[in-house]
Amino acid sequence: MISIKNEHELVSMREACKITAAARALAGEMVKPGVSTKAIDKAVHDFIVSQGAKPSFLHYSGYPASACISVNATVIHGIPSGYILKEGDIVSVDVGAFYKGFHGDCAATFPCGEISDEAAKLIQVTRQSFFEGLRLATQGNRVSDISHAIQTYVESNGFSVVRSFVGHGVGRQLHEEPEVPNYGKPGHGPRLLKGMTIAIEPMVNVGVYDVYVLKDGWTTVTADGKLSAHYENTVLITDGEPEILTVTEGL
Ligand code: CO
């Protein structure tokens, strides 16, 4: 069952997403050489709590932090640690906040100081692939229309999309139906309806699309050790333009 949010529920959902987006922005501003990923996680945690919300990821299936911070060849679910960011790193920050009964979920990859041209292109293509998918996120289209648009754009730029992790419905639960893959043929999957809220989240690799999970059970890295980036927003389906609920100025 794919939940449809009514206007009343959407008021709360928008507030949850606004807090989530602000947490992402705050994390992005902290991405600088010399800062530990743990320090960014603490700032995200303290900010979300200061807003009267709860970090959605903390203790989710045993996850030990409030943010996922994934550096360079780490694709997603990097656990914040004492690692000190250095010039040239690319840093994916994924955050979620639970407020008034609803979750927001968003992510972005930030450059740490000066980065390589290839890394900069990866970040840009990953972000743009989200917007390519977003154009198809309207009532009446199928979920895989979004997936296909993302894959086509990414591969036309010479990169690959991760297959084994996907976007998802989001609302009262962090992960709801439907699954929103970042690859596939168009015209498949559930039909999109006004009031659905989905997290569209392309994960894009410079090299092969294969990834594996480290022994900690979370940290997901590229199989070939090459760079990866991530971009995610929580999106409301309408009968017109989709609405990005985790909207941030300039992100
Ligand atoms: Co998500």
Fold and architecture overview:
With 251 residues, the chain is an alpha+beta fold. It has helices spanning 7-30, 37-50, 117-134, 143-156; strands at 54-55, 67-71, 74-76, 90-99, 102-111, 160-161, 167-169, 176-180, 197-200, 203-205, 211-213, 220-222, 228-230, 233-236, 243-244. The strands form 4 sheets. It has a 5-stranded antiparallel beta sheet with strand order 8-7-9-14-15. Helix 1 (7-30) packs antiparallel against helix 2 and helix 3 (117-134) runs antiparallel to helix 4 (143-156). It is globular, with a radius of gyration of 17 Å. The two termini are 32 Å apart. 50% of the residues are buried. The structure holds cobalt (II) ion. Residues 105, 168, 199, 201, 232 line the site of cobalt (II) ion (CO). The site of cobalt (II) ion has 5 residues, from loops.
Bound molecules: cobalt (II) ion
Q: Based on DSSP secondary structure assignment, what is the total number of beta strands?
A: 15
Which class do the helix and strand fractions yield?
alpha+beta
Shape verdict: globular
Q: Unreliable segments (pLDDT under 50, ≥5 consecutive)?
A: none
**Proportion of β residues?**
15-25%
Number of H- or I-type helical stretches: 4
State the helicity in percent bands. Answer: 25-40%
Side-by-side strand order of the widest sheet: 8-7-9-14-15
What is the terminal separation in angstroms? 32 Å
What characterizes the major β-sheet?
Answer: 5 strands, antiparallel
- The secondary-structure element order is HHEEEEEHHEEEEEEEEEE
The radius of gyration computed from the alpha-carbon positions, rounded to a whole number of angstroms, is 17 Å
Mean pLDDT: 98
